[in-house]
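Hi U.,

Before I forget, here's the chain from the pilot set. I'm dumping it here mostly so it's searchable later in email.
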Amino acid sequence: MRKLDQEKVKDCNFGAESIPAHQAAVYTMCGGGFLGTFAAEQPESFYIDDRVGRLPYGKKAIYQAVDTLITIAKKSGLDPKRLPQMPRFHNCGVF
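Structure:
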């Protein structure tokens, strides 16, 4: 896994319109559920508890994706502790 430089992420053209796509990616990387929703909607407060079982992606990759979401949210002037509700996948066959 490559380590992303968050300073370079700030320089990219990601804006507030890309946040729902990044939220969906983080949600999927966490395996959905409560943990995925927590990561997507409150990324600055997010952590992975030791009691969490097997994840679809490694913890380092998940934390890097969450850090990228935080960087984009701050760049867009949003509070990374309370992002807008992510798109809902209920009954869409995601999991």
